[in-house]
Specification:
Length: about 80
């Protein structure tokens, strides 16, 4: 990690990259050593559904913030 982000201001990036590598390592070990093919397929499907739900919830919250911002802009501009 230090070869990629060696400057002090990138400490947060080093921490996140380390956490990502740890998660990938655990998932790799899970698939390689502890799963049959059927279990791996079921687990992959569950992870994909979970990632899709996170994506949807993130964008729904993002849209709500945008709508509130637009509403505020239109209300303020109509008062002028």
């Amino acid at each position: 990690m230090m070869g990629v982000f060696f400057e002090p201001q990138y400490s947060y990036s080093r921490k996140m990259l380390t956490q990502l590598f740890m998660i990938v390592s655990v998932l790799d070990d899970l698939y390689d050593n502890h799963c049959t093919t059927g279990e791996g397929n079921v687990f992959t499907t569950a992870l994909q559904r979970f990632a899709t739900l996170l994506f949807i919830f993130h964008h729904v919250a993002y849209r709500v913030i945008n709508l509130y911002s637009l509403n505020y802009i239109f209300v303020e501009s109509s008062c002028l």
